[in-house]
Amino acid sequence: MSERIAPTRTPAFEARLKKRYASEKRFRALGLGAIVFSIAVLVFLLGTMTFNGIGGFQRVEMEVPIDFTQAGIAANPDTMAQSGALASLEAQGLRDVVQYFAAEQLGEDAASELGAQAWRDVAAAVIADPALLQRSESFWLPASADLASGYEGEGSQEMQALAAGLYEDGRLAKNFDPGFLGRSDATNPQQAGIWGALKGSLLTMVVTLLLAFPIGVLAALYLEEYAPKNRWTDLIELSINNLAAVPSIIFGLLGLAVFLTLFPNLRSAPLIGGMTLALMTMPVIVIAGRNAIKAVPPSIRDGALAIGASPVQVVFHHVLPLALPGILTGTIIGMARALGETAPLLMIGMRAFVATPPDGFTSPATVLPMQIFLWSDEIDRGFVERTSAAIIVLLLFLLVMNGLAIYLRNKFEKTW
Amino acid sequence: MSPAILLLLALGLGLAGWLAARARAWAFRRDSADGRLPSLPIYHAWYVALWVILPMVAFIALWSAIAPGLVTQQVLASPAAAELPVFGFQRQTMLNEARAVASGAASAVFNPQASGLVEPYREALFYYNTIGIVVALLIAFVAGTYAFLRLRPDFAARSKVERIVMAILLGASLVAILTTIGILASLVFETVRFFGMVSPIDFLFGTHWGPDPMANPDNPDGSRYGAVPLFWGTLFIGAIIAMIVAIPLGLMSAIYLTQYANPSLRRWVKPALEILAGVPTVVYGYFAALTIAPAIRDLAMSLGVSNPSSESALAAGLVMGVMIIPFVSSMADDSIAAVPGAMRDGSLAMGATRSETIKRVMIPAALPGIVAGVMLAISRAIGETMIVVMAASTAANLSANPLESMTTVTVQIVAMLTGEGSFDHPATLSAFALGFVLFMVTLGLNFVALRVVKRYREAYE
Known about the structure:
The complex is a heterodimer of chains A (about 425) and B (about 450). Chain A is mostly helical. Chain A contains 18 helices and three strands. Chain A has helices spanning about 10-55, 70, 75-80, 85-90, 95-105, 110, 120-130, 145-150, 155-170, 195-225, 230-245, 250-260, 270-295, 300-305, 310-340, 345, 370-375, 380-410; strands at about 60-65, 135-140, 170-175. In chain A, strands 2-1-3 form a three-stranded antiparallel sheet. In chain A, helix 12 (about 250-260) packs across helix 13 and helix 14 (about 300-305) runs antiparallel to helix 15 (about 310-340). The radius of gyration of chain A is 31 Å and the shape is extended. The N and C termini of chain A lie far apart (about 65 Å). Chain B is mainly α. Helices cover about 75% and strands about 0% of the residues of chain B. The longest helix of chain B is centred in the middle third of the chain and has 41 residues, at about 155-195. Chain B contains 15 helices and no strands. The mean pLDDT of chain B is about 85.
């Protein structure tokens, strides 16, 4: 007679197992939920910005037909090629001509809502093509901020009525505004553009790259290849690791206390901004550089040493070229971070309203994130759209930089 | 002449030295018996070029730092400067105007009082520019000649060049230490000045924050410099609300990605989460201020909260938490991946479900790494500036209600330094004291976290 074995799958066991499997499922769903939530927030963030920002690439414009044959403005290709062309057109009363035709075609009310700088667009067209003055031409000119918000269904009742009337006639529309990328900051959202900030960002990035890249790479080479194991090296390593984690605003305080004391004339210049950001970016490049250098197999160094290369030749002829793609990837990521950084630049005074694009490393400038920050304080509906549009441009830049980094990593990734 | 042109000149002279030295080395090589030198000609070339460029660049850097001060001194010593107003700000504006005209950056002075200074400025600029150029050229010439005369057929140029290269490498790595010292020095110096005016006890333990940048700087009211509400606001937004969002979401995403997700999903989700970390903080700040804060206020209103603030701690904290998610998840990812597979397999073989394995085996084993990651995340959150500048308020409030407006250390640093106060005012200097506290706290958190990670990593190897 064989002994009876107690069944393992008792009802109690089954119940317990069911509970455990249910808990397993819940846990798994929780994990998926966390990811879905994070991605959803990202999509919502990007969606909001895109939705708001599309309008920022457009502006509300009125159609003004101008008959230049009646206007009596004289211009020929020679005078229009000179630098005083704009002043000459202004002196000849182009502004009044534009106002006159606007009043003629659209009525007094609408003409008074023509943007104050609208005639400049006409002037630019005339300068580009003086032959315009022989015929009549229809222009789409920016409306005032009040009329623009009337078009959006906000602002005063009269403006809304006026805008609705003009829209019915097909004289008022929201058109793509290529000048958004070409103009600089302005107090009126209809006139504001981001070229000044973009140029400031580019100049600042050039300074950052020129300083942070060589110093970062050389420091990484020293630490990885030559540094003796002693207290000094430990101290250097410790300070690099800590600098990489120091809040960015602290670098701003450093820039304020040191760079602006040394160079008080260069307040809000790309040079100082770039120097401050370089100190912040350098540790990132060192850490990425060390990892890339570490990944180069020792056999390459040994091979070069064996045929008589000196330690410096080994590093500069063999190790550095092989590690360069990895270093570049880290550099691009560090530069992308510096491009989006605002807080340190806020400290060194790059907060100013700058209406002309900077023409050098020492002229006052603003950068793209700072432009976003400055515009975000404006309550005008038009600036909300402009801000989101500027954010789209900034994010596109970052996307391109990060994409480049990923491409480089994939292309040059090597397993030895 | 601007430093940029001087630098180009240095490079040009360096190139000339390079070419001359290389030609000389080739000449040695032709004359030598077996056509061999101890070093290749290119090392002779680099030897001379480095001797020309390095001293000259060092001098230019030094000169561009001290020359503006000397110029201003000479202008102030001129008779025209006696008519300048004594008040600091106006005086500075006029000096700046005159300098801009003298250096050709502006066409005319706006203020008639400054016009008398243009001529002295022009003279001073010319004088010191000439000195700068002459000395720079002299240095380049002397150093270059010295190096060139040292070239001999048996000269060991390579080892000399390599010694210079090593010095440059060491110098580059010392920049990190110099930066750290620079940060510490500038913070400590201004903080000590601040504590000379306001007692550290008032600052660290006072509960009322309301510096008045317009008050008399000689007799500051210590009771207005109590930073406790700022420390609380920073902790509440950065270490409590943000972490309530970031830790569960980050940890669960890491667990799902490492344990459950198939590789193709992982390949897409990981970069997507990294985008979340790459979005500039000014964009998050704008998002928080424009979208999240009004939504929270409306929600609070519909729940019957009377008078909810439009700049709540909750809005800033939630958005900051989202920003930190990828940071927590990648740190957790690393430390979970570092747990040996045998431990997991052992647990699974015993019949534990995957979630039980994760909860009872993987997480406890990976805990030190996760804790270190959370500490780094907190350090990042409390140092974060733009989100709180845009979404939190400047009103210091000591409250545990997340719907109240609150301010943080970083917000106050920005507020104090972008205000109208002069640089000697305790309100301005308090920003440096706040920066010093922030620096020390984040340094401590980072230091401990890095230690924990290091020790923990060695445990399984």
